Every structure is written in C-alpha cells, then in structure tokens.
Fold this sequence. Notes:
4-stranded antiparallel beta sheet; 5 helices
Amino acid sequence: MQPLAKRRGTCYNAAMQVTYPLEGAAGALRSVSEGVYYRIRWLEERIAAYILRGDAFAFLSAGTPRDGLPAIVAVRCDDRAVASFERKMQRVMRLKYSKAARAMPVADFPVCIEIACGGAKTWLSYTFGDDVRLVELCKEAADFALYSFRHRYSRARPQE
Length: 160
C-alpha cells in the first residue's frame, strides 16, 4: 500500500468516467442515479462517524454539526456502470414484493470521490461493498482533514 501522499490526487482511469458534482441545487448525481447518490451520502456519514467517534460503523444522531468535517463535493465514476446499477435498482423497485426483489443489487464498481475540508480538496478512490476499504477511506479522509487543518492554521500568529 502506498503512503497517502503518493495516492492523493490519483484515481482510476479518468478516460471512461464522468464527474458528477454533489453541490448545487439537487446535484447532478442524484438526478442520474438515486441509488449511487444515497450510497455516497452514506459514505459521508461513515467518514464523519470515523472522525467523531473513531469507528466507521458508528451511527451519528440526526442534527450532528458538520462544521469542520470533510464533505464529499463530487464523484467520478463510469457512467455505464452507474446506468447499469440504476436499471437494476429500478427493476427491483418494480418487483417490490417478489422473491427477486429480496436481494438488493450491489454497487461493485469503483468511484473516485472528491473530499473538501477547509478550502482544500483531494480525490480518494473507493469500491462499494468493501468494508476493509471503507475503513482505509475513512482513515485517509481523517488524515486529509488533519493535514488541511494543520496547514490552514500553521501560519497563524500568536496572540499578543
């Protein structure tokens, strides 16, 4: 495994991917695939839980302040994989009460997420459904948040 400094800013093959911003009115990703959008928001919750509680699988109460925590501002992923996953989700929703609908589709494609914290941004890669990689992603996001915090205040003057 490469150190964080060497991996920061690198991602999967960008030629086959589309970048979806999450900021703005409703976010472009939500209009394309709600299933992927809610998984990205779930990732943001896991990162916040890791930073606040030290556990990526902890639950945060509603209304937990988000100031100073990293936020996911954009997602880069393969548009064909997103479209395929959305078709699977729609098929499951149409078959709500049948046996086929009991197993939700798995988003097993890689994504790159852009994390912003205190004005600084970085890209981190992730593949859905991998709990080990989830903890690594949370550690990388926490390291980035700490790095950006230190960098932001390193030039602060002492009070006189």
